Amino acid sequence: MIVTTQELFKLAYGHFAVGAYNINNMEQTLGLFQGCVSSQAPFIIQISKGARDYAKVKLLEALIRGAEELYPDAIFAVHLDHGDEAACYDCIDSGFYSSVMIDASGEPFDGNVATTRRIVERAHAKGISVEAELGMLGGVEEHIKVDEKNAMLTDPDEAAEFVRRTGCDSLAVAIGTSHGAYKFKGTQSLHFERLAQIQQRLPGFPLVMHGSSSVPIEEVQRINAAGVKLDPSARGVNEDEFAKAVPLGVVKVNIDTDGRLVWTRVHREFFRDQPEKFDFRDPGKIFIAEYAKFIAHKNEKLGSAGQLAAVRAAVS
Ligand code: 13P
């Protein structure tokens, strides 16, 4: 069942975070639904501009509609990840999306406010909610690349002003995470003190954490043992820190890179160990099962696992 993103946020705030997972193809879609149903978790499907180009808008929509029928217990929202203005309008007008993200965080403050405000007006007129971003996450995500020296934590006072002036419904904050496989070297904690200051200025307001993959060392080691050359010192977010972010207002946690690592590990190992095989369905089946396990594990860490019955009771 597709629900609104705001409904999920209202139920989650202070109790758990909703996993927001990107999909690009059929295998990921099946694994995502299986993992969320087996762990009894509500979730958010994220569709990026890159996914819309790769898998085509119509096919992605059809995949989601099909999965909704195959998994009638699933409760989820559909969200545009990192949209520009044109992609946001397209999704708002399509009537299929629960929410859109406008990422104008690369613009100066007033420009970000003005762009976000335009999207909010158009989206709210159709009952769609808007996530915006303030501050700059480092790393690479599709068309967005921010050098570490230009990455900037979100300023709490600016965050309050931004929300007031734009009327956005949730805010992606920069608190030390970054996109992609190369986030940190060595251990680095999230900036909880910054998150607490933002929450103080915006009590009860839904906050979003992008760049939340954990880039598990065991996964990187297995992938590298199968012939890839990932930097072995790459580290991500400690997934035990999700639980500390929840009481500080984080309701949505974006995870994409870790899922790509699962894909790479499964396929690299499969073809390394069985070089005579060439039917893509063989590793595909393994990937779906491994992806489902991965999703269920993340949902446990986010606290969304086991929440499905309560969410169903509240939305129906
Ligand atoms: P990761 O690259 O850490 O998975 O972050 C994904 C993300 O924030 C999508 O918007």
Report on this model:
The structure is a single chain. The protein has 316 residues and is of the alpha/beta class. Helix content is 47%, strand content 17%. The protein has 13 helices and 13 strands. An 8-stranded parallel barrel has the order 1-2-3-4-5-8-11-13, surrounded by 8 helices. A 3-stranded mixed β-sheet has the order 7-6-9, with no helix packed on it. A two-stranded antiparallel ribbon has the order 10-12. A hairpin with a 2-residue loop joins strand 6 and strand 7. Helix 9 (217-225) packs parallel to helix 11. The protein is globular and about 60 Å long. The model has no long low-confidence stretch (mean pLDDT 94).
Order of the strands making up the biggest sheet: 1-2-3-4-5-8-11-13
Shape: globular
Going by helix content, strand content and strand pairing, the class is alpha/beta
- Which blocks of ≥5 consecutive residues have pLDDT under 50? none
Per DSSP E runs of 2 or more residues, the count of β-strands stands at 13
User: Which ligands occur here?
Assistant: 1,3-dihydroxyacetonephosphate
What characterizes the major β-sheet?
Answer: 8 strands, parallel, barrel
- Helix tally equals 13
**Strand fraction:** 15-25%
Termini, distance in Å? 10 Å
Radius of gyration based on Cα positions: 19 Å
Mean pLDDT: 94
Order of helices and strands: HEHEHHEHEHEEEHEEEHEHEHEHHH
Helical residues, percent? 40-55%
